[in-house]
């Protein structure tokens, strides 16, 4: 996938071990950092909303993303209101597998987050701008510990069946993903890919119609650790729905996962992680409600 050039104003913020600390009001107020996955955790496509109530009882929705002139992602209005409150009471850090370009399409309620984690930890944005030192550190880690991306791409090109493969993409020159017709893709193929990738230092995650193949050192929790160091926060809350969020949830003092997604489907659990039963946009609203209550007491 070709991503857009880095926008004017992108900066180097200092070394990933000596970068500036956040002196903002949020960090001083509560000492709490809230890191959350976005897609199918806080925001939802129309197909993922899972509105299970009669139409006349459906919640009002706020569109938070437009793509190619069409509304794409939503939150309930109540979730949006609470997220604005949460961002004022704690350091709110979106933590997504999206590329920077994809992330910048999203307009969440409230101010631009002081930090955001994109590309599954491959990029840290500081006030919306790329931290190039962090990116260089990540690249070195991947070069030291994993098979090259080119090898992964070649394997996917040779092994994926055109009968169920819709698209193949590369994200930020960091990892690969396929868009597939899930009902046609054999479970055995996915299992084989998982084993093959594991031997080369990569991991596989199935999220909806997308099969992600990601280097093992490329994690949201590694980027989170750096953001925590910079902000000086002492308490972490988090939320997520997929295997790629597992390390993010384990890194928190308290975390939540919705009743849908890879983690719910496999019964994944970990100490300090609350498994919710609600699904879809209602789960997103419940996650924000619980986070806000945990921050404000």
UniProtKB/TrEMBL annotation:
SUPFAM superfamilies xref list: HAD-like
InterPro entries to which the protein is assigned, alphabetical: HAD-like_sf, HAD_sf
Sequence segments annotated as region (Disordered): 1-22
Biased composition (Low complexity): 8-19
Record's protein name: HAD family hydrolase
Organism of derivation: Wenjunlia tyrosinilytica
């Amino acid at each position: 996938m070709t991503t857009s050039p880095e926008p004017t104003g992108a900066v180097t913020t200092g070394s990933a071990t000596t970068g500036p600390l956040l002196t903002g009001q949020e960090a001083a107020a509560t000492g709490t950092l809230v890191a959350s996955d976005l897609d199918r955790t806080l925001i939802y496509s129309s197909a993922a909303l899972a509105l299970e109530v009669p139409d006349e009882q459906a919640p009002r929705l706020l569109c938070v993303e437009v793509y190619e002139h069409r509304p794409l992602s939503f939150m309930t209005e109540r979730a949006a209101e609470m997220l604005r409150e949460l961002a004022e009471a704690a350091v709110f850090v979106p933590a997504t597998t999206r590329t920077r370009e994809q992330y910048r399409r999203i307009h969440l309620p409230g101010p631009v987050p002081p930090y955001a984690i994109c590309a599954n930890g491959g990029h840290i944005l500081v006030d919306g701008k790329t931290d190039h030192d962090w990116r260089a550190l990540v690249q070195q880690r991947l070069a030291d510990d994993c098979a090259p991306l080119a090898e992964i791409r070649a394997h996917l090109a040779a092994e994926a069946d055109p009968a169920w493969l819709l698209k193949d993409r590369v994200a930020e020159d960091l990892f690969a993903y396929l868009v597939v017709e899930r009902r046609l893709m054999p479970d055995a193929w996915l299992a084989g890919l998982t084993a093959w990738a594991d031997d080369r230092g990569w991991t596989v995650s199935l999220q909806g119609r997308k099969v992600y193949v990601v280097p093992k050192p490329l994690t949201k929790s590694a980027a989170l650790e750096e953001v925590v160091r910079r902000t000086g926060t002492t308490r972490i809350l988090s939320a997520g729905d997929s295997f790629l969020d597992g390390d993010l949830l384990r890194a928190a003092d308290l975390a939540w996962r919705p009743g849908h997604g890879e983690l719910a489907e496999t019964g994944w659990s970990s100490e300090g992680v609350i498994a919710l039963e609600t699904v879809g946009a209602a789960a997103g609203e419940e996650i924000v409600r619980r986070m806000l209550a945990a921050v404000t007491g």
